[in-house]
UniProtKB/TrEMBL annotation:
The keyword Calcium does not apply. This is Glycine betaine/proline transport system ATP-binding protein. One of its GO terms (molecular function) is ATP binding. GO terms for biological process: amino acid transport; glycine betaine transport; response to osmotic stress. One of its GO terms (cellular component) is membrane. Keywords: Amino-acid transport, ATP-binding, CBS domain, Nucleotide-binding, Transport. Pfam families: ABC_tran, CBS. Residues 341-397 form the CBS domain. It comes from the Bacteria. Belongs to the ABC transporter superfamily.
Length: 397
């Protein structure tokens, strides 16, 4: 379900943006517009949507328009043109009272610099959004305790921000955003001020938290590794425009432009790609009930393969048979596939990182089965498939 729908959004900075807007619509770039009108283009016509429960990362270099875009989403900045539908309501058009209400109840925001009140306790900071909403003290502190425990800060309620490390302060920032139980979290470079190791921990914790809470998260980052790690999808921006919207795999494997290609060229794709993104569809599969060794052998010959996965009709994996065993069974007139089925297989779940697959494939005498949580055969990986997929991604392998 679509949660946020941004359509042709424009933000031009300056007192009379009309001329700049029409130049923009005629295809002028932001430098030309600035030179001729003195107006800066923050966002120059951006369209994308965010699905309910997804983490979308807005990524781009400094000045590409990420912050402006996200501030338009909850109208901390008024857009110049375009629409922002949130649950079917155009945020760009609502009255200021409605806006206040939507902002307080639907959106939570987490900032890079934490923006905590130094003279309030951790619990009071976490409860701040509820205080604004007029929730009475006892109730809001109760809620603050609950969200602080969700972000791993139980026991720190009465401390002051200065007594906390950077990572812990940002957890308070996150707790404060979560306390109002918003549908949408806007996170502006939320982890960028943290040390690399703490930053990685926070990314992991955000993913854990998201598994439990299923918020819609718009996360700004200028860091590609972060975007690839936490984004269900990435919106890549350049000069106020969107260059590509896609899953991390799509951005890596099918860069839309030379710019995206350059952007991602230093990524170690073996760390980002998963078994799911490099596997092949299991194109030849035997079925125990219907296929005997002869039929299985024929299938293998037709496909030019030397082993065949065998599943039930519902695709749950039973095992694998080799061409040699099938041939032998056929020659002895054995028409039961079960007798030559190897059931003890190495399998991996779809989210296994590609970097781990080489080691697993090294000593495996047959292809590697990618199996879902419900034991269904989702795909097949052989060393060649893996290398080809990585080569297609092109870089660093
Ligand atoms: N208040 C403002 N007045 C004029 N121009 C602005 C204003 N805010 C942003 N801009 C311009 O809009 C463009 C986009 O800036 P924005 O801060 O959104 O980019 P960003 O991608 O978030 O960059 P950063 O990562 O450095 O924050 C820049 O050219 C910037 O100079």
């Amino acid at each position: 379900m679509t949660k946020i729908e941004v359509k042709d959004l424009v933000k031009i900075f300056g007192p009379s943006p009309n001329r700049a807007l029409s130049m923009l619509r005629d295809g002028a770039d932001k430098d030309e517009i600035l030179a001729k009108t003195g107006h800066g283009v923050g966002v120059g016509g951006v369209t994308f949507d965010v699905k309910s429960g997804e983490i979308i990362v807005i990524m781009g270099l400094s000045g590409s328009g990420k912050s402006t875009l996200v501030r338009c989403l909850n109208r901390l900045i008024d857009p110049t043109a375009g629409s922002i539908m949130v649950d079917g309501v155009d945020i760009a058009k609502v009255s200021s009272e409605e806006l206040l209400d939507i902002r307080q109840k639907k959106f939570g925001m987490v900032f890079q610099n934490f923006a905590l009140f130094p003279h309030r306790t951790v619990a009071e900071n976490a409860a701040f959004g509820l205080e604004i909403q007029g929730v009475e003290r006892e109730t809001r502190l109760e809620k603050a305790h609950e969200v602080l425990s969700q972000v791993g800060l139980s026991g720190w309620e009465q401390s002051y921000p200065s007594q906390l490390s950077g990572g812990m302060q940002q957890r308070v920032g996150l707790a404060r955003a979560l306390a109002v139980d918003p549908d949408i979290l806007l996170m502006d470079e939320a982890f960028s001020a943290l040390d690399p190791l703490i930053r990685r921990d926070m990314q992991d914790e955000l993913l854990d938290l998201q598994d439990r809470l299923q918020k819609t998260i718009v996360f700004i980052s200028h860091d590609l590794d972060e975007a690839l790690k936490i984004g269900d999808r990435i919106v890549l921006m350049k000069d106020g425009k969107v260059v590509q919207v896609g899953t991390p795999d799509e951005i890596l494997m099918e860069p839309a432009t030379r710019y995206v290609e350059k952007f991602v060229e230093d990524v170690d794709i073996t760390k980002v790609l998963t078994a799911e993104s490099v596997m092949k569809r299991p194109f030849a599969v035997g079925h125990v009930r219907n296929d005997g060794p002869r039929a299985a052998l024929r299938k293998m010959k037709n496909e030019g393969i030397s082993s065949l996965f065998v599943t039930k009709r519902d695709h749950s994996l039973l095992g694998i048979i080799s061409a040699a065993d099938a041939k032998e069974a056929a020659e002895r007139g054995d028409d039961n596939l079960e007798s030559i089925l190897q059931r003890d297989l190495t399998t991996v779940p779809p989210d296994t990182p590609a970097s781990e697959l080489f080691e697993i494939l090294k000593d495996l005498p047959y292809p590697l089965a990618v199996v879902t949580e419900t034991e269904k055969l989702a795909g097949v990986i052989v060393r060649g498939t893996l290398l080809a997929a990585l080569a297609e991604g092109g870089r660093n392998v």
